[in-house]
Amino acid sequence: MAHHNQSPSEMVKKLGWLHKVLAEESDTTEKEMTDFVKQQEIISGRDPEISEEEYFINMGPQHPSTHGVLRLMVSLKGEIVQNIKPHVGYVHRGIEKMTEKMTYKQIIHLTDRLDYLSSTINNHAVCLAVENGLEVEIPERVKYVRTIIDELIRIASHQLWWGVMGMDLGALTAYFYGFRDREKVIDVLEKNTGARLLHSYYTPGGLMRDIHADFQKDIKEYIKYQRNLMNEYDDLLSNNVIFRERTEGLGIMTREEAIAYGVTGPSGRASNFACDVRKQHPYAAYDKADFKQILYTGGDSFHRYKARLDEIKESMNIIEQLVDNIPEGSYTAKMKAVLKLPEGTYFQRVEAARGELGVYVISKGDKVPYRMKFRSPNLSNLGALDKLTRNYKIADLVAIMSSLDLVIPDIDR
Amino acid sequence: MNEKYIPRYDMTGVIQSIHEYFLSVMPAGLAYVTELVLIGILFLLFYAVVGLILVLAERKVAAFFQLRLGPYRVGPWGVFQTIADFIKLLLKEILEIKAADKFLFNLAPFIVIIASFMAIAAIPFGYSLHAIDFDMGLFYVLAVTSVGVLGVLLAGWSSNNKYSLIGAMRSGAQIVSYELSIGLSLMTIVVMIGSLQLSTIVQSQADGWWIFKGHIPAVIAFVIFLIASTAETNRGPFDLAEAESELTAGFHTEYSGIKFAFFFLAEYMNMFIAASIAATVFLGGWMPLHIGNLEWFNNIMDYIPAFVWYIGKTAFVIWILMWFKWTFPRLRIDQLLTLEWKYLLPINLINLVLAAFIVLMGWHF
């Protein structure tokens, strides 16, 4: 395929749009980066100028608002956040290293464990990379089903995030409402894939098994149910005065910053950074559906929140357009028992629930990859946290972190 | 002022006969001490029972707000769940914090619980069901409950934990600020009554509760009192002192076992006291609902015992406080202080002037 036999740097150049934007912004970001490095010096205690009022606390690795084992070293003056230094690696499982001993079909099951809330989307990235490498033509039916399932997963992920965002801001009731509705999506998926969280439903060349007979009916029922509830979400959180006060105008990320930090997904699009891979580089059946790329110019916590809620609606639109048109056919292409990628490098990206997920494979022609690297959206999104939260209060740190929607196992891998 | 209203089920006779019985079997001084001890034990029991019921009620209310069932395994409808939890807390190890200031660390929970315990003494549960009837009972309740913040501050300071300290400092700023609003909103009604004595306040509502006959100032004062007392009791959306998602557990992070239970219980009792004061001052205390000269209606209402009226009104206010907690997100500390100093306090002051004007013109009933 296109990326066959290219060096990584050549390939990045050919990626085009991102490279171009980055080159334009590199001048302004250079100063930012040196500043950031300086800040890191201070936080490590190397700079003697550190003020006496400043003190450090560790948020995490066990802390209710980091949702996992993220550790933030926060330097505070009173309640004002001065610096944040994230320490990652508490759930590092060496997934990238493990892939080097596994066949491509086995790797699928590992990718579930990256961002466990967008599990099939991770599957999708590896499947597409392998399929493109082998130059296999996959059936239309597979493309449609994959798109629908990916969007269902995206909805489930955003619903969980919505609840958790409420919980982080102290509205515990929202948490249960979010989970109540997520349960319905999970039920649809469970009936079809047999699993509730880590589906491993895709395999290079197609799907693990054909869709359930009730698949289309269930989805239509679910979407009808969910459409009525979007107003409830607005009533409970979006239109709440306290919620507005806690999120509007806080943690503002400009478009330039979003690009410089590589913040993608709804977080990046809330800063008017058009980074939706589904739209920019359509894969699967996304070119068959008519949908909007959600873009906001605010760039604050509230717009990141809005972007995600609107994405739920947009995902439902995509599903509605595709669900009746799933073509008949085989659920998998004819694949060899042992998949061997030809020697070369391969790159594939997909739009995960939190941003752009990239899979970079170097193959030496074996049945296992020579090296596999995941570009995980959460790691880049975490990078912007320090910039976004500086000079805000601890309470805002929690709100802003929540609006970035970090999933820690995806950061650590 | 009207003549004294005496409810249908008058407890004075019973209490009087108990007093006479004690006098007949022992000297006057000893009888007095015995009565004090008995009342103390009675209040302790009441405190424990109300605490247990409120914890269960909170869990049930929260569950229904959140589409859950809440506790339902231990006993019918889960009524023994909090008792089981309490036994568990009693059996738990009390952790010793190495770097903590041990004396203050151990003292803090007692200050918090004693403050709330002392306030109960002045609350009128019914006609003559009143442990101490001060001239300035309302002032006493406000003064005593605000001692509790000392315990919170000490707990945060002595734990030697930064999260606890942040929580305690937040709590200090919050409670000291909202104390003003509580005082001023109650003053609005006190201006109309002309007395701080709680029994007089209840008696003054025999012909109508203050929330009805106090015109607009009373309604405003009631709303402000609800907001301020939510903040005063450190409950959501003003639970910044223990903001779970920010400070893990705030000022009581380092406490375990029964000492933690003290903080926990004190929070619920403070809510109970705040609701009692709201019920007493605004909603007529133990006074039944009377509508003007509608005799048959008033007679029916009189059949309901005074204590039931009191409990019912208090439960209603508690339910509103719980409704707040399980609906709203948490405020930030600066927003909390802005709300108090820039909105509630000026509104309160104007409201007080308005109430004074109404009293001056004799417009209130």
Spell out the key features of this protein.
heterodimer; A: 413 residues; mainly alpha; Cytochrome-c3 Hydrogenase, chain B; 3-stranded antiparallel β-sheet; 17 helices; 51% helix; B: 365 residues; 15 helices
What is the strand and helix layout of this fold?
The complex is a heterodimer of chains A (413) and B (365).
Chain A: H1 8-14, H2 17-43, E1 54-59, E2 71-77, E3 80-87, H3 95-98, H4 104-111, H5 119-134, H6 140-168, H7 172-193, E4 202-203, E5 206-207, H8 215-238, H9 241-247, H10 255-261, H11 265-269, H12 277-280, H13 301-323, E6 344-352, E7 355-363, E8 371-375, H14 377-383, H15 385-389, H16 394-404, H17 408-412
Antiparallel strand pairs in A: 1-2, 2-3, 4-5, 6-7, 7-8
Chain B: H1 12-25, H2 28-65, H3 81-91, H4 102-120, H5 137-145, H6 148-158, H7 162-193, H8 198-203, H9 210-213, H10 215-232, H11 244-247, H12 257-281, H13 295-302, H14 306-325, H15 333-361
Helix pairs in contact in B: 1-2, 2-3, 2-12, 3-12, 4-5, 4-6, 4-12, 6-7, 7-10, 7-15, 10-12, 10-15, 12-14
Could you characterize the architecture of this molecule?
The complex is a heterodimer of chains A (about 425) and B (about 375). By secondary structure, chain A is mostly helical. Chain A has helices at about 10-15, 15-45, 95-100, 105-110, 120-135, 140-170, 170-195, 215-240, 240-245, 255-260, 265-270, 275-280, 300-325, 375-385, 385-390, 395-405, 410, and strands at about 55-60, 70-75, 80-85, 200-205, 205, 345-350, 355-365, 370-375. Chain A folds into three domains: about 1-45, no CATH class; about 55-85, no CATH class; about 95-410, Cytochrome-c3 Hydrogenase, chain B (Orthogonal Bundle), CATH 1.10.645. Chain A is built from 17 helices and eight strands. In chain A, helix 4 packs antiparallel against helix 5. Chain B is an all-alpha fold and about 375 residues long. Chain B has one domain (about 95-360). Chain B is globular. At the A-B interface, helix 6, helix 7, helix 9 and helix 16 of A face helix 7, helix 11 and helix 15 of B.
